[in-house]
TrEMBL record:
Listed Polar residues bias regions: 355-369
Lineage of origin: Eukaryota, Fungi, Dikarya, Ascomycota, Pezizomycotina
Region listing for Disordered, in residue ranges: 352-397
UniProtKB keywords: Signal
The organism of origin for this protein: Blumeria graminis f. sp. triticale
Superkingdom of origin organism: Eukaryota
Span of the signal peptide: 1-19
Protein name: BgTH12-07745
Length: 397
């Protein structure tokens, strides 16, 4: 059983697909039309999709879950025919490109003078902005070091190097200057934001003495492929409806699937029973029912498995490892056929969410202005903060 999460910023046509699966992860950015609606897979693929209708501009999130597909298969379905722009996801206007070119030319000129370049000097002269410098760094042109360099990606062989010697305003780096928070609750000190075309998670900290707000990246800038666990965890916490949807599918992965198949086995040979059992694909059943065994769920949080007892057509409930020696310790029982009417009265039936619901709006985040300062690294300094730096901050609990 696996789930993938798709996050769409429909104002610029950016789709992030991420997820975790048995130690593996995926993170990718894809280009989509501005009119894009979340993909609804064909029913035969066995993929369930949370509410997915897009009704307004913003950042929207949808979960794709399946009990028969792994993460890689889910991603392949979601991103089919979409251009992969993970390595260069940022959109830039011609005006922005011109300003960036002027900034680069100015840095090149200053570097010829063999002077140490600092962000404060470059910005003071008016040729460069925080966003210009961050973009040049992300392109691998500019190396950035210093106490306020947490926004910078590592660059192996930069054309130029500068020192980040002063704090930077958070809003100058973010797409549309916004932070994305848990919807309406604002319990977590963390927030998500679009930065250089990627999704990143930032931790909020507040100064002890002057209430300055600081933001520090928890995800790795420039190494976005490794950020899936942090992004997925943030979405679980920020959007309870997504977490609920995924938990429902997880629950169904543990359910006993019953069909009219047991009635065939009562009078069938072992060979016929085995053949019927091992060909129990959902498409072979008219009305498969998902039955929830409450007692079993309390005892074990893993799959309900069935095996055939030796030389009989009886079923064996196997609650342990699938070894023949272990199986022998469990008793056999004749499968009981139950009609729809009987099952409704005697078994607890769980309603499986529809495979898609395009009539209900997709989940969104609470947006708020990205006010504050970026890169609170002063708690890492050995000799205390510089004289002109804002006061030392603390992490929010």
């Amino acid at each position: 059983m696996s789930c993938a999460i798709a996050i769409l910023l429909n104002t610029v046509g950016r789709l992030v697909v991420t997820g975790l699966d048995n130690g593996l992860s995926h993170y990718g950015v894809y280009n989509v039309p501005l009119s894009y609606q979340f993909l609804v897979p064909e029913e035969k693929l066995g993929i369930h999709v949370s509410a997915s209708q897009i009704t307004q501009p913003g950042t929207h999130v949808v979960a794709y879950c399946s009990i028969i597909n792994n993460l890689s298969q889910l991603v392949d379905v979601i991103i089919k025919d979409l251009p992969d722009i993970t390595r260069s996801p940022k959109l830039s206007s011609s005006e922005h490109v011109n300003l960036e070119t002027k900034c680069r030319s100015y840095i090149e000129k200053k570097s010829l003078a063999a002077v140490e370049l600092s962000m404060s000097e470059l910005k003071k002269d008016g040729y460069c902005t925080d966003d210009n410098l961050a973009s040049l760094n992300f392109q691998g042109i500019l190396g950035v070091s210093g106490n306020y360099s947490c926004f910078a990606a590592p660059v192996e062989a930069p054309n130029f190097n500068i020192t980040a010697d002063e704090p930077i305003r958070m809003e100058s780096f973010l797409s549309e200057g916004e932070l994305l928070r848990d919807r309406g609750l604002l319990i977590s000190p963390n927030a998500m934001a679009w930065f250089q075309g990627h999704l990143h998670i930032f931790e909020q900290r507040v100064s002890d003495d002057d209430d300055h707000t600081w933001w520090y990246p928890l995800t790795r800038i420039g190494q976005e492929d490794s950020n899936a666990p942090i992004i997925v965890d943030f979405i679980y916490q920020a959007i309870p409806q997504i977490s609920w949807f995924m938990n429902v599918i997880i629950g169904f992965n543990k359910l006993m699937v019953t069909t009219s198949l047991p009635s065939l086995m009562l009078n069938a040979s072992q060979e016929e029973s085995n053949k019927a059992y091992h060909n129990r694909n959902p498409e072979n059943f008219d009305h498969p029912k998902y039955i929830y065994d409450e007692q079993f769920s309390d005892r074990r949080k893993d799959y309900i498995q069935f095996k055939f007892c030796k030389d009989t057509s009886k079923l064996l409930n196997n609650l342990g490892l699938p070894t023949s020696e272990y199986d022998e310790s469990f008793g056999c029982h004749v499968p009981k056929y139950m009609s729809d009417e009987e099952s409704i009265g005697q078994l607890k039936t769980i309603k499986l969410p529809p495979q898609s619901d395009t009539s209900v709006p997709a989940e969104t985040f609470t947006s708020q202005p990205g006010k504050g300062w970026l890169c609170d690294e002063r708690d890492l300094w050995e000799n205390g903060p510089p004289k002109k730096a804002p006061s030392i901050s603390r992490k929010l609990q």
